[in-house]
Amino acid sequence: MSNTKIETKTAAQGENPGRRRRSNNFTKRDRAVIAGLVGGPTILHVVFVWLPAIATILLSFCQWDGIGGLSNIHWVGVKNYAQIFTLYSDFKIALRNNTLWLLWFGLIATPLGVVLAYFLDKNLKGTKFFQTAFYLPIVLSLAVTGIIWDYIFKVNGFLNIVLGYTNADTAPSWFGDPHKNIWVVLGIASWRHIGYMMLLYLAGMKSVDPSLREAAAIDGAGEWYTFRKVIFPSLRPVNIIVVVVTVIEALRAFDLVYIINRGKNGLQVLAVAVYENILGESQRIGWGAALATILFVLCLGPIMVYLYQNFKKVD
């Protein structure tokens, strides 16, 4: 009888005894471990990501050459942004190149990755070899990729030797023409991006429910129709990730162009412009911070779309 009264009193107070007992199972040591696992990465994230990001945004409204300490920082408002859009000629070239990078990845490199994934998903003869061959560039960093292709395409490089150009004065300069070198670099960047997209889509296709393919086959649908109407729509989560990755990869392009010619001679991109203004000879940290903020805003769009889609699924 007394137990019944206790349970009735607990229920009347709106408490769940089972839930309360489970929460008491955590000892002080358990709480300390959980706090360390959650709090440690959070503190590191705030210190090394958010604080530098906020400082960069604030510096974008200031003028500073990096000399003389923080006392030489002067607030100039939106002057840096106005000068970048009106006086900084490399900005328009960099923005154009990043836009070309995005269009090339979105319209050419990514669809080629989808095609490769489509054929490799069929488990044709030699599939393992081709998977390894197309995956290999992903293992290499973009810096190493730039060094490799720089030795291939430079005037006295491997390609000109194979083509029979023994004289450096008559050999074509693949990176020398400011109107054409961007297309050479985009081809080099695609060497890695295509394999990356192939890997993402191949993993997505392997996870597609086989019953969907069987149902389409029973209905008499062809392979191409099944892919367009059944398989590809089921890869919606992969498509969202691919869009985000493609946009970010195009906007943060740095390694290749900096190794080839430090982003000069028509190969300017936004990331190299940020680096050159902050750490280059001019030391225009305010301009560099403003360029970094512009790049951050451009990247923020696809990131927000990605977060929205994921939180929408949770809701």
Q: What does this entry look like structurally?
A:
- This protein has 315 residues and is mainly α.
- It has 2 domains: 2-59, no CATH class; 85-314, MetI-like fold, CATH 1.10.3720.10.
- It is 73% helix and 1% strand.
- It has 15 helices and 2 strands.
- It has helices spanning 2-12, 17-23, 28-59, 79-86, 89-120, 127-139, 142-153, 158-162, 181-206, 210-218, 223-234, 236-251, 255-261, 270-279, 285-314, and strands spanning 62-63, 74-75.
- The chain has a two-stranded antiparallel sheet.
- α7 (142-153) runs parallel beside α13, α10 (210-218) runs antiparallel to α11 and α12 (236-251) packs antiparallel against α15.
- The radius of gyration is 27 Å and the shape is globular.
- It starts with a helix and ends with a helix.
- Mean pLDDT is 83; it is low at 5-12.
Task: Tell me the name of the CATH homologous superfamily of the largest domain.
Answer: MetI-like
Strand/helix succession: HHHEEHHHHHHHHHHHH
Work out the helix count. 15
Number of beta strands: 2
- The CATH architecture designation of the largest domain is Orthogonal Bundle
User: Which stretches are poorly predicted, pLDDT < 50 over at least 5 residues?
Assistant: 5-12
The rounded Rg comes to 27 Å
| Percent of sequence in beta strands | under 5%
Largest sheet properties: 2 strands, antiparallel
Quickly count the domains.
2
The helix content is: over 70%
Q: Kindly report the CATH topology of the largest domain.
A: MetI-like fold
Write down the CATH class of the largest domain.
Mainly Alpha
Give me the side-by-side strand order of the main sheet.
Answer: 1-2
**Outline, from the CA principal axes?**
globular
Mean pLDDT over all positions: 83
Summing up helix and strand content along with how strands pair, one would put the structural category as mainly alpha
Note the gap between the termini. 44 Å
